[in-house]
Design brief:
The protein is mostly helical. The protein has 29 helices and 17 strands.
Length: 627
Amino acid sequence: MVLRATLSPGVELQPLHWPGKAYSNESLIGLISRRGAEHYLGSNRLILMACGIDVLHQGEAIFQATPHSLEELSRILGIDEMEIRKKACAPIGEDHSGKLVQWGKRSMRLRDIEMRYRRISPRSLQHSDHHRQSWLLRLLPYCPESFDELVDCCSECQGKLRWSAARPVGQCDREDCVHDKDPIPAEGNELPDRMRESYGLFSMLLSADEEEVAAARAMLHPDLRDIDNPTLIDLVFLLADIDRPQGRRANMSKFRDSRAVDIAARATKGTEALLEWPSCLEKLAARAINNRKSERHLWSRLKSAANNHPNLEVRDLVISGAPVIAEGLREAVAPDSPPVMLQTELVRLTGISAEQGAFLSKGDFLRSPDMVGDAGSSKLDRALCEDFIQQREASERNETVATRLLLPTYAIMQMGRSARLDRPSNPGLNALEPQTRIMTASVERLVAELASLDVSDGTEELLSIGAASRIIGGGLKPWDEIMDAILNGHLPCLRAKGDPAPTTRSLLIRRKDLGMLAKMMREPRSDFNVPLIASQQAAMEILNATFSQMTRLRSNRMLNFEQAYKKLACPMTEVLALAETRVFSAELSLRTGIAPNALKAWCDARGVVERPEGGFCRVQIDRLQPV
């Protein structure tokens, strides 16, 4: 039998007959409704009026229960009074946003609690048919247990779920609905997997269960463990909204009416930032200071949070988390940021051009990772700048080293790549002058090693390594391999007597060792490692050609030299293409052992014709005289 009669306020209602229990995470209004349904009372109003609570919407009963009402509820429901008191949400004051109510041992804003409509998770009710207290919180639009979206209306008739009827919380209120007696099915959206861990932590932080709250708050910074729920909520959503694209509004006042997934996304983002407190705020402040031109809006938001946030506790937390926010932007120095050097100071100290200084600033080559991101900033990492200056002063251009050793410039690039010579490690210097500088100390080390070779006594027939290298043709010579062979003793080499410094003219090898040199692999063609242009001297060295032969090639337009900087140069691709197809007399003489003036007769006897522009066909020569 269903009892639908009402009682006047204060009329004593007999205790419910069958014993029951209260779940630790059950809401008070859910407990009242469930116990009333177990005894077929039909209406929650009956129980509430018997306890002296007369409200239009039964969900509001949790805010209006007096100590006497709670005592009566305990007697009628047959539940321990302490359990009842834990679930009550008695008014305890106000803050800047309105009324505050009791929530466990802490408080909660009244506006963050949904009391008019009954929000449920049909999937969670399949495991236990009681209404969870967390479902009352509007900032938790998904169930923390099943992670499906909470619903407050019937999926069949679309009728709103209210608290007036004492019935199982998972059923519809309308008696003509198919879900009047059968539970509403689980058909809602689910929270994305990537959000669940942080969303679950956020729900634990707001739990009314003290043990659950203690476990969650132990994960926070000590400064945040004892703050009340309203301040915690304000801080979470501030951290979620402050780092957003310029021009996008935060909608701070109406976000509670946003889509469920949007509320959950902001809650998870803010909670993840909360776990990194205060470094999360320090990083934002550092970024705002370092990127003061491109992200000035970020500094404005931080200042607004510190000066204008309606929650005074949040203001204090922002300042204590990153004290630099209290300063002006011009005077502020990013927290834990390295000392800086202005672009103009770097230009003045090094003598590089203003355009080169701007290039280094724009490319972030001289900024630490925390400073990267502001293309318009003139602030550079002082340590990287000082390293740039030191390495630039302690290095030489490839051309200078090549001139000193009488080697082609590409040979210095080879030895830098193979680590025989050291290249600068500073990213700014390598970006400004890519592969064009060598550390002076490594050059001195190489010269000292070459200077330690034995001196020739003049009794043997010797060739300079520069002249002997002409036996290698067809492309770039492997000078790094040649130097390694000399210094490792694999290619016997002597120094010319009386030569003050080792060069390719003063380093001598025996004619009988030419075969060892000829077997060395020539440098394979690679556009990454090859200079774009070749000077006339470099072209002669690669082709093993004489000056007169080079003049002939130029006049026949086989090589096109133009003015480049202060010297003539032609595209390296033209030089290499010619080297792959032609053998000139210096190379052929060393390969055959025939004097240059006798080569023509040797070639005529074998049907090898000299090309009109100069040189012989490499394919023919390689067939007759393999390397």
